[in-house]
Amino acid sequence: MVENRSRCSIRRNDTTKTNVSQTPQPTPREQRMDGSLSYPWLSRPREDCIGIVHDYSDRSTLGHYKIKSMLYVTSSAVGLCSALSIYRENERFYDGVLMPLMQVLDPETSHNLAITVSKYGLFPKSKYKDTDSLKTEVWQLNFKNPVGIAAGFDKQGESIECLHNIGFGFVEIGSVTPKPQPGNEKPRVFRLDKDKAIINRYGFNSEGHDVVYNRIKYLKSKQGFTGIIGVNLGKNKDSKDPIDDYVQGIIKFGDVADYLVINISSPNTPGLRTWQRKEELQHLLETLVVARNNLPGAKKPPLLLKVAPDLSQQDRRDIADVILQDKCHIDGLVISNTTVERVRVLNSEHTKQEGGLSGKPLTHLATELIADMYRLTSGTIPIVGVGGIFSGQDAYEKILAGACLVQLYTSFAYHGPPIVTRIKRELDELVRQGYCG
């Protein structure tokens, strides 16, 4: 059997020696009769030119080599283009490639992956520079822009710094419960793609006060971090004393939170929304306002209340009456949480799943409630507008209805970081045109 030759072998000329001086040397180029140039050395055998022969007599080896090379080059090119698109916040790339790939995963896995990517700072810092017209001052806090991320995205406070870096003016984490709890059984999150909506029934899955507090404490101690952090407080599902759960949250996070939110409007914790009734709310807020006022130090975090969009007209009047009382006077409203109503036309699967609906179907419902509560409180209570914000126009309409700040959630889940920049740019243009002061 003849041994296979090396794929890369040196060929030596073992014939009789030739006097080099007798061998015509190729010139770099020669003039043809017609005046054109010829390159004689191109017609010489390759081995005579470089002395090396590549043996690809094995066609399968050659094919494998070519395929491997093509895959390497292609994957490298795709990786480079993807990295550049992410770095440049290319919205078409996110909408056409990256986000559809994320949506191949089930919604909760996709959510967890987004948190992990944010946690390790893999999203690049936004290149957009917030303009002076977007700066907002509320509760003696200076917001670089009025667009925040709503509670529910970063429940455990893992991605706060990255979320600030990609352009959010403030980050609200949670809901956080005193003791760790797993939340409701899976599956508990459902996409309604055709409706640009999400239904969730997470049920306050939380790592608990201590874990989340330590994360915020560490972040606040980092040199150079100046981002605004809100902490959304919830109660444990098996709590015997819900009011005490909120008191514990105020005491725990009072020295690290820039503002606190009392969440009594999630539809996924049994009995929670009953605290929006007038008598229960009055009793709750009297206790919580005292707890906040008794915190040590001169600076007390603003206390906000998050309400549901499904309130009747009487419920709205009752809430306004309570929060305007001195003993129950809070510093702001977050309007609104998710809705349990399915009155609007929905075209996607999973529309009958139980849980809170967020996204496009909530846009006008939340804006109407903002306008109502602004009117009922005579504009004396600052409002954070949430619900179905997918454009600068959506944000502007909530501000026009009475909101000082706005928050995103579902639009961020569908479109990723570029939507933050787009909404701010569009909102800035509306402000510059004089639509709002």
Automatic annotation (TrEMBL):
Q: Might you give the EC number(s) for this enzyme? A: 1.3.5.2
Instruction: Tell me where in or outside the cell this protein is found.
Output: Mitochondrion inner membrane
Identify one Gene Ontology CC term for this UniProt entry. Answer: mitochondrial inner membrane
Q: What Pfam families has UniProt attached to this entry?
A: DHO_dh
Q: Where is the Dihydroorotate dehydrogenase catalytic domain?
A: 134-430
Membrane protein topology class:
Single-pass membrane protein
Cofactor(s) annotated in UniProt: FMN
According to UniProt, the reaction catalysed is: (S)-dihydroorotate + a quinone = orotate + a quinol
Q: In which pathway does it act?
A: Pyrimidine metabolism; UMP biosynthesis via de novo pathway; orotate from (S)-dihydroorotate (quinone route): step 1/1
Kindly state a single biological-process term from the GO annotations of this entry.
Answer: 'de novo' UMP biosynthetic process
Q: Where is the composition biased (Basic and acidic residues)?
A: 1-15
Q: What is its main location?
A: mitochondrion
Could you tell me the keywords of this UniProt record? Answer: Flavoprotein, FMN, Membrane, Mitochondrion, Mitochondrion inner membrane, Oxidoreductase, Transit peptide, Transmembrane, Transmembrane helix
Ranges for the region named Disordered are 1-35
Say yes or no: keyword Transferase present.
no
* One function term, GO molecular function aspect: dihydroorotate dehydrogenase (quinone) activity
Q: How is the cofactor bound?
A: Binds 1 FMN per subunit.
Q: Does the keyword Isomerase apply?
A: no
Spell out the InterPro entries in the cross-references: Aldolase_TIM, DHO_dehydrogenase, Dihydroorotate_DH_2, Dihydroorotate_DH_cat, Dihydroorotate_DH_CS
Q: Which family does it belong to?
A: Belongs to the dihydroorotate dehydrogenase family. Type 2 subfamily.
What is the name listed in the Swiss-Prot or TrEMBL entry for this protein?
A: Dihydroorotate dehydrogenase (quinone), mitochondrial
